[in-house]
Amino acid sequence: MPIKSSDKVKTALGNHLGKEIKKKSAISEASMFASPLEFFVVEKPQSYTQRSGEIMFKSSPFGFAKQVMGGLSPEMVHGFYLSEDEASRIAEDLVKKVMEAAQALEEKKADVTGKLDKTIHKLQKEINRHMNEASKDPVAADKHHSMAERKMQMIKALREKHKMVESSKKELPKKDEE
């Protein structure tokens, strides 16, 4: 038989229902953060400029829930650790890997600009050769001029690429500065 009135519900539960709810809602926010289960969160580094202390923080289940509601994306989290030492070590390793990847990328950019410089220099030599051939052989001058013109267009495109790569280079801290 279903209970129809709230008085009957209170009587059936011994008038404890309302008191329990009031007690639970009176828990302060500070006591929520004093949870016995505290842990360390390590985020994934978003930039090579971040340091290990910037990607690691101490939290609790309620604190972490607040972080997520505040905008922390679960995809940004690398892991959770109970030991501060382990979390710190993992954070340092992550920062080191990101820095190594950034340095490898900058080295690759330097290699690319070096190769572009060599190719541009080679094409300029070929243009000079075509221009010399055109002055020596007036009959074939049009052919040499058109070849030189094509190579100048190639140089123009390579210089644009060179500018793009140069503008994307970043000054990274030296390994001993870390």
Can you walk through the features of this model?
The chain has 178 residues and is mostly helical. It has a domain at 102-177. The chain has 6 helices and 3 strands; from the N terminus they run αααββαβαα. It has helices spanning 6-12, 17-25, 29-33, 61-69, 84-136, 141-168; strands at 39-43, 56-59, 77-81. A 3-stranded antiparallel sheet has the order 2-1-3. Helix 5 (84-136) packs antiparallel against helix 6. It is rod-shaped and about 90 Å long.
Descriptive labels:
178 residues, mainly alpha, 3-stranded antiparallel β-sheet, disordered N terminus
Helix and strand arrangement:
Layout: H1 6-12, H2 17-25, H3 29-33, E1 39-43, E2 56-59, H4 61-69, E3 77-81, H5 84-136, H6 141-168
Helix pairs in contact: 5-6
